[in-house]
Design brief:
Layout (H helix, E strand, L loop, with lengths): L2 H7 L17 E8 L3 E8 L5 E15 L9 E10 L3 E6 L1 H7 L6 E14 L2 E6 L3 E6 L2 E7 L1 H9 L14
Antiparallel strand pairs: 1-2, 2-5, 3-4, 3-6, 6-7, 6-8, 8-9
């Protein structure tokens, strides 16, 4: 080996490449308000490969609701079961899932929404976690959607994975 070969092996000369092919996919889901009142999960595929999206898992935290007509589950799974073609996007409404998970409140309600999207590409299962958002709604109508990135920072500081969909047991 000559000097050029040794230089190529130095750690700071190596490029940071994802360990798997699935890590190279540019798949970017995000929450948004469409048509002024619909809460949508927008699935954007910026890669040159088709991505199969299985489901979106929704967890509600810090729910502030009154006059609920059902017991709030504080979590839901929305089955998408859809291909997103290369350089294409696809959107689904999450308003009904959030409304049901909140216990079908009458009037205004608000909560933090944590969403994870499960998808399949290159024979690998992957997940994309969206930034936490604060949502204010009245039934199925979205009144406000804002970022709650402070909550994500708070969770990272706890040094552990917390499952917000699970109820605490008090024996």
């Amino acid at each position: 080996m000559d000097e050029r070969d040794w230089i190529r092996l130095l750690p700071w000369r190596q490029k940071n490449k994802p360990e798997s092919k699935a890590g190279q996919i540019k798949f970017a889901p995000k929450l948004r308000i469409a048509d002024g009142w619909v809460l949508e999960l927008l699935l954007v595929n910026r890669s040159s490969w088709t991505v199969w999206v299985k489901e979106a898992t929704i967890a509600l935290v810090d729910l502030n609701a009154k006059e609920q007509t059902a017991i709030p589950t504080r979590g839901a799974k929305y089955e998408i079961l859809q291909n997103v073609a290369p350089r294409d996007s696809f959107s689904v409404s999450l308003a009904r899932s959030i409304y049901d998970a909140a216990g079908r409140p009458q009037g205004r309600y608000s909560c933090l929404v944590r969403t994870t999207v499960l998808y399949h590409v290159f024979n690998e299962w992957c997940s994309a976690r969206l930034d936490t958002s604060r949502v204010e709604m009245a039934a199925l109508t979205v009144l406000d959607l804002s970022s709650a990135c402070w909550f994500d920072k708070k969770i990272k500081r706890t040094n552990g994975l917390v499952d917000f969909a699970a109820e605490e047991r008090k024996d």
